[in-house]
Design brief:
8-stranded parallel barrel, alpha/beta, binds 4-methyl-5-hydroxyethylthiazole phosphate, binds ligand LCLJCK34, binds magnesium ion, TIM Barrel
């Protein structure tokens, strides 16, 4: 399966309702700090919306809920991987994307046979506080050489203008949050992203 090159991340299914009709074919639901009932309801809604639009949905963090809901893809960071039951995830048939930021983390995840590897933050991000400031484009090229045929996702400080350079450096996919969600016209911005990555 070839994943779309444009990979936006949203924190609520209201965003999916707005953006899926514009041609988003790969999307992550990244919910933080919500009660369990809300998380379960949001994941079930996202699953149904993405199926209706022929889009791949990736669930961030909530691997057990993703299994229970019959979802297809998960994204787990390094701390998430410490807690997750990988055999149960694989047994349920879920595909797995993982975060990496340094050599040790990359070595660790390559042993897990991931379905994509994310490298971040390629550029500085305002979304969350991170130990790493920016990896830079040479690091993207280095990571692609190391992951080989595993799809490489570049994330962190992405914009429509930066995306071509990140793809040219070796990323297969570009993932983005605030360039869309903080834009004055998020729909117009998503249309630009779709145009720039097709
Ligand atoms: C595509 C993609 N890459 C990285 C992350 C970050 O995951 P993680 O390190 O677990 O941090 P949180 O997003 O859970 O705060 C991601 N979600 N997606
Ligand atoms: C979740 C995450 N992981 C690495 S960078 C990042 C944030 C990406 O957000 P933005 O596209 O707004 O920089
Ligand atoms: Mg996480």
């Amino acid at each position: 399966m070839t994943l779309d090159r444009f990979y936006p991340i949203f924190d609520h299914t209201d965003w999916l309702r707005r953006m899926l009709p514009l041609g988003v074919k790969l999307v992550q639901l990244r919910i933080k700090d919500q009660p369990d009932a809300v998380i379960r309801a949001e994941i079930a809604t996202a699953r149904d919306l993405c199926r209706a639009h022929g889009a791949v949905l990736v669930i961030n963090d909530y691997w057990q809920v993703a299994i229970d809901a019959g979802c297809d893809w998960l994204h787990l960071g390094q701390e998430d991987l410490d807690e997750a039951d990988l055999p149960a995830i694989r047994k349920a048939g879920l595909r797995l994307g993982v975060s990496t930021h340094d050599d040790d983390e990359l070595e660790r995840v390559l042993g897990m046979d991931p379905d994509y590897v994310a490298l971040g933050p390629v550029y500085p991000t305002i979304l969350k506080q991170m130990k790493w400031h920016q990896q830079g484009l040479p690091r993207v090229t280095e990571w692609k050489a190391r992951v080989g045929s595993i799809p490489l996702v570049g994330i962190g400080g992405m914009s429509v203008e930066r995306a071509p350079g990140v793809l040219a450096a070796g990323a297969d996919i570009v993932s983005v949050v605030t360039d869309i969600t903080l834009n004055a016209d998020p729909e117009a911005r998503v249309r630009q992203w779709v145009e720039a990555t097709r």
